[in-house]
């Protein structure tokens, strides 16, 4: 019942609109609910109530309210569009498309309906149809900048970056302060490999809309890709302040702090990341977790959380692609595809090149490589291209690459990235191949329903760690990590030329900076304290990293000049420096992997501790296969004691080096013919099970 003192529905509607416009969504929802109690048959109040309910994340209630509005005002274009948006927010993209197409039949060519229909088609990954809907809408609303931008987004999803750029610039001409247009410009430029220009675009977006956390996060990614690590960390900090629950920003900030040796607030950030994984409150990068001192169970939980988010986001595109896989004829070779961003002068390429050259020589295998980074013109890329079928797919997006792999008829697809480098999760979640395998670069389980097998060995994944692997486990009879046994070691310079003392023990730790955490560094400092005249040789970094470590050494009572830094060098020159190192000191919880292989190949002994996760057990696997169990320690105390003993015993160090010189030609660790044979048997076993219709199972070769 109303009276003379009750505001009219128009006045109440205006009050609700004002609350929505200033972001007071809870107040708007309460006001709309009260107003509808007074005017239950008012379509506009029902519509506004639905909009407010969408903003407070109540999509089911919003849908009901907008259905009421549609019943009360069936001819209202605004209501029909809002109802379609509510259906979309509730996860019913197909229902929204059907509803909006019905509305379009009643009002042909209406730009608002076409715009909302385009949004629903984008959500359903029907990008070509979305492009058509947006393009038709521009005829009715040629000065609408948002339409131009949506058209650009559809073109980008279709892989048409140049056309996307044209429409983005059109949107900016219509509205020069359009923050989302600068953001999309940044995405386009990044896809074109124009990192510096992408950075400028994201900076403009953030300047226009400083409260949007997506912009500093994307800016951080662009800065990180461009090597501006300190600036990237600052951008991630801004994103995290705006959205404290953003697991992506937290992950990247934590990881960059480790890369920069910027250890302030590190424990707090790590605890926040671990809590987010344990509670499912945020999606934390699984690769970031490898460098945290956590157990395999938490790592798997984090990977599963991450994979679940990818599985959900890729579901519409997976439905559209709907790949089916015909089983090959029994006598057909096994067509194997490898996907990586490292088929260049890169750690991955350096590890796999010799093995792949041999693997490609088997008549019953057909080896294809899908390189997600352009050709760097280096020797590794040339060798791989000569031995295998190389596909340069660096210009393709995930959907296009998935289609290429599927069209190539790959039977077994191996992910050489996992969650590291250029994360391939969005690609593999599309299921372009019937059998999919996680191997090498990501030292852990993916927790992903789209990954069938994980290739490892019994040292890095013993039986007690099996419960923390989601894939079926294939364990090779040797260390899972191959080596290029043809790589050359350049003529070494003298110690003096390297900035090293002529006398005294040279300890080396050329691990990536994110592996040298405060605890690992403290352990290294304790060794230096107990080995007089020794120095520690490390990789030089940027953005003040060397100075931070020198300061940390001074705080630990070690003269800063006892830290010597090696600049980045071509691989053969880098390998030659190991001639001047007496002992490589490893790290935990993340071991040396490729770096340990490099040191051992170049004749420098490696001292390690066995960790409690895959990432912390790789050096142990390498050393055990090499026949050097004496260099594998149980804990920190044993590690420090052994490092100190060897550092003070020049004769023992010479003996170790002599042993390594012999093992380089005799050990199975560097036997790539044998490794390729083992890997071939693994691929054949996977193929055989698939071809006879059996599910994947654990395999110990």
Brief summary:
The protein is α/β, with parallel strands linked by helices.
Secondary structure: elements and pairs:
Layout: H1 9-21, H2 25-38, H3 43-55, H4 59-72, H5 77-89, H6 93-106, H7 111-123, H8 127-140, H9 145-157, H10 161-174, H11 179-191, H12 195-208, H13 214-225, H14 229-242, H15 247-259, H16 266-279, H17 286-290, H18 296-321, E1 334-340, H19 347-359, E2 365-371, H20 379-387, E3 389-392, H21 398-408, E4 412-415, H22 425-428, E5 435-438, E6 453-457, E7 472-476, E8 506-509, H23 518-530, E9 535-539, H24 545-555, E10 563-566, H25 571-576, E11 583-585, H26 594-601, E12 606-609, H27 618-625, E13 632-633, H28 636-647, H29 650-666, H30 672-691, E14 699-700
Parallel strand pairs: 1-2, 1-4, 2-3, 4-5, 5-6, 6-7, 7-14, 8-9, 8-11, 9-10, 11-12, 12-13
Characterization of this structure:
The chain has 701 residues and is α/β, with parallel strands linked by helices. Among the domains are: 331-484 and 676-700, Rossmann fold, CATH 3.40.50; 496-669, Glycogen Phosphorylase B (Rossmann fold, 3-Layer(aba) Sandwich), CATH 3.40.50. The protein contains 30 helices and 14 strands. The strands form two sheets. The protein has an eight-stranded parallel β-sheet, covered by helices on one side. A six-stranded parallel β-sheet has the order 10-9-8-11-12-13, sandwiched between helices. Helix 1 packs antiparallel against helix 2, helix 13 runs antiparallel to helix 14 (229-242) and helix 15 (247-259) runs antiparallel to helix 16. The longest helix is centred in the middle third of the chain and has 26 residues, at 296-321. The mean pLDDT is 96.
């Amino acid at each position: 019942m109303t009276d003379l003192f009750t505001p009219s529905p128009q006045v109440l509607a205006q009050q609700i609109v004002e609350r929505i416009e200033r972001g007071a969504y809870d107040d708007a929802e309460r006001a709309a609910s009260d107003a509808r109690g007074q005017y239950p048959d008012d379509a506009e109040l029902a519509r506004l109530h639905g909009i407010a309910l969408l903003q407070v994340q109540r999509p089911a209630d919003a849908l009901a309210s907008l259905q009421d509005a549609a019943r009360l005002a069936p001819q209202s274009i605004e209501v029909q569009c809002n109802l379609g948006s509510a259906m979309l927010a509730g996860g019913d993209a197909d229902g929204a498309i059907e509803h909006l197409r019905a509305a379009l039949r009643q009002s042909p060519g209406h730009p608002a309906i076409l715009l909302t229909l385009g949004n629903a088609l984008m959500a359903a990954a029907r990008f070509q149809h979305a492009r058509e809907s947006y393009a038709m809408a521009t005829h009715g609303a040629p000065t609408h900048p948002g339409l131009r931008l949506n058209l650009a987004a559809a073109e980008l999803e279709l892989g048409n970056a140049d056309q996307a750029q044209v429409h983005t610039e059109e949107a900016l001409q219509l509205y020069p302060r359009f923050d989302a247009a600068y953001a999309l410009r940044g995405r386009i430029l990044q896809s074109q490999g124009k990192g510096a220009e992408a950075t400028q675009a994201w900076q403009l977006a953030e300047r226009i809309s400083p409260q949007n956390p997506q912009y500093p996060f994307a800016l951080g990614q662009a800065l990180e890709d461009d090597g501006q690590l300190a600036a990237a960390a600052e951008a991630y900090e801004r994103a995290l302040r705006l959205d404290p629950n953003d697991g992506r920003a937290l992950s990247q900030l934590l990881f960059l702090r480790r890369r920069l040796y910027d250890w302030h607030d590190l424990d707090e950030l790590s605890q926040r990341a671990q809590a987010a994984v344990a509670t499912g409150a945020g999606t934390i990068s699984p690769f970031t977790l490898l460098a945290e001192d956590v157990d395999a169970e938490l790592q798997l939980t984090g990977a599963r959380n991450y994979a679940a988010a990818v599985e959900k986001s890729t579901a519409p595109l997976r439905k559209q692609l709907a790949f089916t896989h015909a089983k090959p004829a029994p006598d057909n070779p096994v067509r194997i595809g490898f996907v990586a961003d490292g088929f260049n002068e890169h750690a991955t390429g350096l590890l796999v090149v010799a093995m792949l050259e041999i693997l490609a020589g088997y008549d019953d295998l057909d080896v294809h490589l899908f390189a997600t980074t352009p050709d760097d013109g280096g020797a590794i890329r040339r060798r791989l291209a000569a031995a295998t079928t190389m596909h340069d797919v660096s210009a393709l997006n995930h959907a296009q690459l998935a289609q290429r792999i599927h069209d190539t008829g790959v039977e077994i697809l191996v992910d050489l990235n996992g969650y590291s480098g250029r994360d391939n999760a969005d690609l593999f979640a599309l299921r372009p191949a019937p059998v999919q395998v996680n191997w090498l670069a990501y030292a852990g389980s993916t927790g992903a329903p789209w990954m069938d097998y994980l290739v490892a060995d019994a040292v890095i994944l013993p039986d007690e760690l099996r419960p923390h692997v989601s894939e079926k486990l294939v364990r090779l009879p040797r260390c899972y990590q191959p080596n290029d046994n043809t790589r050359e070691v350049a003529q070494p310079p003298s110690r003096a030329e390297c900035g090293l003392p002529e006398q005294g023990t040279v300890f080396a730790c050329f691990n990536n900076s994110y592996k040298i955490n405060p605890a690992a560094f403290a352990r290294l400092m304790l060794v230096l304290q107990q080995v007089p005249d020794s120095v520690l040789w490390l990789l030089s970094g940027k953005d003040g990293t060397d100075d931070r470590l020198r300061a940390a050494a001074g705080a630990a009572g070690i003269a800063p000049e006892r830290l010597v830094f090696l600049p980045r060098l071509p691989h053969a020159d880098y390998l030659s420096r190991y001639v001047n190192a007496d002992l490589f000191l490893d790290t935990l919880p993340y071991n040396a992997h490729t770096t340990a292989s490099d040191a051992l190949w170049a004749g420098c002994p490696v001292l390690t501790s066995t960790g409690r996760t895959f990432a912390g057990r790789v050096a142990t696997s390498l050393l055990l296969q090499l026949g050097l169990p004496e260099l594998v320690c149980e804990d920190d105390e044993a590690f420090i004691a052994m490092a100190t003993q060897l550092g003070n015993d020049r004769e023992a160090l010479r003996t170790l080096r002599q042993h390594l010189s012999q093992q380089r030609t005799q050990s199975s660790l560097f036997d790539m013919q044998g490794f390729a044979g083992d890997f071939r048997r693994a691929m054949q076993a996977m193929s055989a099970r698939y071809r006879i219709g059996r599910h994947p199972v654990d395999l110990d070769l």
